Amino acid sequence: MEGRWRAAAGLSKWAFLLASLMSYIASDVAAEEGGDGDGRKGLCSTDLTTFLPFPYSNLPNMVCQPLWNSYLLRYSQSKDNEITIVLSTIYTSGWVGIGFSRDGKMLNSSCIVGWVNQEGQGRIKQYHIKGFTPGEIKADRGELPLTNVPPYVAVQGATIYLSFQLKFNTTLKTQPLLLAFSTKTPHHHRLTVHEDKTTIYFDFSQGKADDSSSGVDSYSSPGILKDRRSHGTLAVLGWGFFLPTGAILARYLSRKDKVWYYFHVPIQFIGFLLGVAAVIVGVSLYNKMHVFFPAHRGIGIFLLLITVLQVVAFFTRPSSDSKYRRYWNWYHNWVGRICLFLGAVNILLGIHIADAGQAWKIGYGFLLGFLLVTVVVLEALLRLRPSAEADNKHPPFSINSIDREISL
Q1: Could you tell me if residue 207 is left (phi over 0), alpha (psi between -120 and 50 degrees) or otherwise beta?
Q2: CB 114 within 8 A of CB 153
Q3: Can you list the residues of the chain whose pLDDT is less than 70?
Q4: Contact between residue 87 and residue 78 where contact means Cβ atoms under 8 Å apart
Q5: Are 214 and 135 a contacting pair, CB within 8 Å?
Q6: Please, where in the chain does CATH 2.60.40.1210 lie?
Q7: What are phi and psi of 92, to 5 degrees?
Q8: Which of 102, 155, 249, 267 has the fewest CB atoms within 10 Å, measured from its CB?
Q9: Closest by alpha carbon to 100, among 170, 199, 219, 183?
Q10: b/e sequence 129-149, b meaning 16+ C-beta within 10 Å
Q11: What is the reported pLDDT for 219?
Q12: Which residues form the Cytochrome b561 domain (predicted)?
């Protein structure tokens, strides 16, 4: 009994260390994502005349502002409400896009997308976003008031430039802009799913992002960043720490006294609640951002389903002398293992999708490595235990036994 309580105390210490580690991760991610990007201002002096045609190469009263990541917006707005735009960003492959939306949402927005195909030819087209799947993104459609000046795309060094001209009925002021990219090249003008996106409210009359405007949270806004960190932290704590810890207690301490059960149930219940909270925050993020990560979202929903089934199974557990108890144990054990495996996969997938940085990768890598090493060591001890117990039950052959037999 004393050994079991000592093990529980050790687990509480690890829980404290994990909480400290997650606090460090959250603060580190906040610091990483809080940069202002003013260093990109120096790119505004790039000579556009060497690779862009008129009028994109000569923008009178040009305004140049960093937007997001490496995105840089150059534009010039005339008195007759004609606006010439040159959007640039770092480019290696795939497509780059900028969209105009009425409400800041991707749905029903119109976008200009540029890329370089496999033959090395630049392509730029307008798209209408009628849905969130590639088949619902229609090429050569949209509501942008393009002028007779054809859009133009160019790659200079490691930077791609999307150039186009619009004419509005009134002066363009605050406008929700959608910025997105993918590293996969469109096939037959069919866009692949974006790998990252953001929404920014930009005031073209003032030449800056309008931080005071209301509407959809930006992918990089403080509210979204807080939700992203909360989603990741809850998932790591629930599916990455508490549920695996409870499973380890059940497998490797259950052959001793019953104290393991009184730790297993509350630890698993805490892990379940944290997992549900992670899903709730994830659904909220999906509704705010309209991102399309089917694998991560699908695994998360499936995990929620099987963890709910595990909770239901707990309340319907047959008695120990029931003939169905054997099948219940088999089901509970294997569904639990599937849950833990998919939980680890989805956490890694989420860290990759969010581009969370080294702190998250190192932190979860350390936690996962520690759990795996613990399982390997305890599994080895479990395999060795039957032979040791058998030796204790059947003591080795001794001379004393021979003497007793002779005396008889």
Answers
A1: left
A2: yes
A3: 1-42, 209-222, 254-257, 289-292, 355, 386-408
A4: no
A5: no
A6: 38-209
A7: -125, -45
A8: 102
A9: 199
A10: beeeeeeebbeeebebeeeeb
A11: 52
A12: 193-387
